């Protein structure tokens, strides 16, 4: 120690600087190399992540986009009064009670249910394929079986079309769609094909004549799931189920979460109990979602006796799951508001409640909204807890209340990826993924927009 | 403070109101759950049922495997329990006991058709002509050799029998949660196992355990999910041989080739006549206590059994179900109509 002090004191200032500079110059190259190395690793990591995202989107889009267009057969459909022999649609009389009218309506609908709409479709097919009736079984494979209910629906809505000829775009069978999209190897022998040789020949012929065309398919958006008529399987039921659950999460998890966060952050005393609550909220946010599903199944279904596969139960379970996320996001946003705001409010005589609700909260709202929207988006993409409360069922109707049976978008993806007809449903599954992803992206975009729009900087 | 209290109070009231309003509402939709083999058939019937009867809602069909469905079914009686359990095997005595213990004392058993189980491989791999003992030797943990039980030495199919393809053994079978697994063991593994003299010497339970033990060196893969997962295995590994339901194979004929068992090619005809050995009846179980409470329950069962839904040339046949003959069908229909209950 003494010697070094001696040396230093003996050296001039210039000499000292020289030594320093030499030392710096020596290490400079090494430090530069270190920096470049770190940059490269960082860029590599970002590049790799981006590459995976690109691959993911490219495969999903390339597989799924074609499914938004489906094979349609354009036919002149004659609503033959000789086939559709039904009474006039009942009209409610002023003297009639509602129950009596419903009774008459039901009888009429039952009568309509017995009409052979396959015959109507076959007659229309005969106009474009003269030998359709000779090969009835092959001909009926052209149009998907659900279209007979679509025709029935048209008659039910407006019985005056009986006797008229309408030009309609009927959905082709799933296997016809697979065939014209080349999703099955055309060179395979008959034994390995799904469609008979006769049907395949007709499809090619009708496609050449422009009667079978790939058209944008509304079935995917307007219909609920289907298994008896695969080509008409759609997302309407799952979409409505997801929307209902999201609304429940928004109206349950967000207010409760924000209220508890405000209390914990602004009003609650800091003691052992609130520490314990805070630790538990953080732990709760890390609990795997499937655990919430188990909880939902045993509490809401077995104990509260709520219905199986209903969006109400799904919404409650997802609310529980989203609650900690909302609380944590709200608290961190409240923490970010400078104490000077609170002090200024209190200084001019505002009460604690006034300072929070008039000054702190308005400033924190954009951040809280962002957190809440991200929480809801996370809940929208969740499937594991829903499987345990019976939402992975096959539901062929669109729910009208949260107590009706329903599925959700992510579960519908899971169900479709398990469907037997792989050639058709691989594309359909990717299409469902695209719909779900677009929903998520728009929710996230909304969150970013809100943040940008209302953000305050200090 | 008051604001917080109000907000919380409102939220709590809403939650409680929701929770207690629900039981008052009676369910008007039939709830079905169970076997994933029966699911496609059941879903088609449910959809057609909903479309054909304006007064009933479309039933909801869940999966969960035969065992899972029957467990849910036996949970009790009431609107929050399911009405029908689909099963790809008959209910076991202990499951029925469980049902009775939980108050589900009135169960109607409905057999609605048959299903074949097939072995299939990728079209670009070798084709198989299997005998039950081939399958046993390929998958067993231990095999009998010269009077001794030795660890399974086979790694290629042609080591088992020269007529089989020269490729690695990789057998993809359903997990034990599937009813299919039971049929696979009962109809293929056990007959194959029993053909050895060393095994015949073993006694009841010892024999069953020996025959059911599968090798754990990775050449047998158990799949807990559905057939799509088995197909994905085959897509990834070209030499795999998978176990599928006939209807699944039928809809993916462009990717799969089917193996013969005992020289018989599985098809609707060979299974219906019983020539192809690996087939099984399919069932659903109806909770009699819910008949008359849940609208349309008995009608659904009758509709399912009607010949235009499940007979020859019906939508179910098109989906791969092997229909029952008319006598058997008539018997089942009369059992439904008279609501014949299962005895403990």
SSE topology:
The complex is a heterodimer of chains A (458) and B (344).
Chain A lengths: L1 H9 L2 H52 L4 E10 L19 H16 L3 H12 L7 H4 L7 H11 L7 E7 L2 H7 L16 H12 L3 E5 L2 H4 L13 H32 L4 H14 L3 H15 L7 H25 L3 H9 L4 H29 L3 H5 L20 H9 L4 H33 L4
Chain B lengths: L1 H20 L9 E4 L4 H14 L7 E2 L3 H9 L10 E4 L5 H9 L5 E16 L6 E2 L1 H8 L2 E4 L2 E4 L5 H4 L10 E4 L4 H16 L2 H4 L3 H9 L7 E4 L3 H10 L4 E5 H6 L4 E3 L1 E2 L6 H5 L6 E9 L9 H9 L1 H4 L4 H4 L7 H12 L7
Note down, in words, how this protein is organized.
The complex is a heterodimer of chains A (458) and B (344). Chain A is extended. Chain A contains 18 helices and three strands. In chain A, 65% of the residues lie in helices and 5% in strands. Chain A folds into two domains: 68-224, no CATH class; 236-454, MetI-like fold. The mean pLDDT of chain A is 90. Chain A has a three-stranded antiparallel β-sheet with strand order 2-1-3. With 344 residues, chain B is of the alpha/beta class. Chain B folds into two domains: 2-115 and 281-337, 3-Layer(aba) Sandwich (D-Maltodextrin-Binding Protein, domain 2), CATH 3.40.190.10; 116-279, Periplasmic binding protein-like II (D-Maltodextrin-Binding Protein, domain 2), CATH 3.40.190. Chain B contains 16 helices and 13 strands. In chain B, helix 5 (132-139) crosses helix 7 (179-194) and helix 13 (297-305) runs antiparallel to helix 16 (326-337). The radius of gyration of chain B is 24 Å and the shape is globular. The interface between A and B is large, with 56 and 59 residues.
Summarize the structure.
Chain A is mainly α and 458 residues long. Chain A contains 18 helices and three strands.
